[in-house]
Design a protein that fits this description.
Length: 286
């Protein structure tokens, strides 16, 4: 029970930190440099630029009907996190509204603003959280009309940016697209980039010696696969190992020291579950 409570506290703390990054970026970079945004945040920015309606208040107001519609369509845990994320971001947008960072180079504003928003959303998504907005709309449409989530979010972003272009000009939207690309890349990094591992396949006549050294010096498990050479038809042993990207160079050095004629392939592994990585039982690292 205590471990579960600590897990929830940790997740909600991460959501809070993510909302801080998001709110500061919107006020410091986006609003200060008159940049647009996609999603509900983009609608709020358009209304702020046109009518000076506070972004934090409008963000919360727009999300209320969305959350009511989504009440029975998403899991209870996700709904609570979405309610918290929406309320937290709305409050922080209001608290940080006086933090401004106008710059003569809008490109710098879009780059750093996109990076900060991406870090914030990446942290929130990392613990299966949400700040409401278009992802809730996408879930509703997916539930009733089987429309893919990504397609709906892209369509809504394009519509909102199109409206922004009508009012504020195409250059602002072009800078915003740069920011959104950086946001996407930053989110991808937090989703799987920082945990991305390497799948290493080694074909060698000294496979047993290599796998012993790998297990001894890196404490990573290995698998021996029996194979047959396509040209020679000789029986060979293949060593397969999954390791972190930081251990890759060590493994390559081990192979080089033992067999300079070995054949090695390395591939990206986006998720690894099991001993030495993330536990299937607790969703934590062993």
């Amino acid at each position: 029970m205590q471990n579960k409570l600590l897990k929830y506290l940790k997740e909600y703390l991460i959501i809070t930190v993510g909302c801080i990054f998001y709110a500061v970026s919107i006020n410091y970079f986006f609003i200060s440099n008159h940049l647009a945004e996609g999603g509900v945040a983009g609608i709020c920015l358009i209304l702020y630029y046109l009518f000076k309606i506070p972004v934090g208040i409008m963000y919360f107001v727009i999300n209320i009907p969305l959350l009511i519609m989504a009440w029975k369509m998403v899991g209870k845990e996700f709904l609570f996190k979405t309610l918290y994320g929406t309320a937290c971001l709305s409050v922080l947008l209001s608290l940080t509204e006086n933090i401004k960072g106008p710059t003569n180079d809008i490109m710098l504003g879009s780059i750093y603003g996109g990076l900060l928003v991406g870090i914030g959303l990446g942290l929130i998504f990392m613990v299966n959280g949400s700040t409401g907005g278009t992802d809730v709309i996408a879930r509703i449409l997916n539930r009733y009309f089987d429309i893919p989530l990504g397609r709906t979010m892209l369509f809504l972003d394009v519509v909102i940016l199109g409206i922004a272009a009508m009012f504020f000009g195409k250059e602002i939207v072009m800078y915003t697209l740069i920011a959104m690309l950086i946001v996407s890349k930053a989110i991808d990094y937090f989703q799987d980039g920082y945990t991305k591992s390497k799948g290493i396949t080694i074909i060698s006549e000294k496979a047993d010696e290599i796998k012993d050294r790998i297990m001894l010096e890196t404490e990573r498990g290995t698998t021996i696969i029996n194979g047959i050479g396509g040209y020679t038809q000789n029986k060979i042993k293949i060593v397969y190992c999954v390791a972190s990207k930081f251990e890759l160079n060590k493994i390559k050095m081990i192979v080089k020291e033992i067999d300079t004629y070995a054949f090695i392939t390395v591939s990206d592994v986006s998720e690894v579950w099991g001993e030495g990585f993330r536990s299937l039982r607790t969703n934590k690292k062993y």
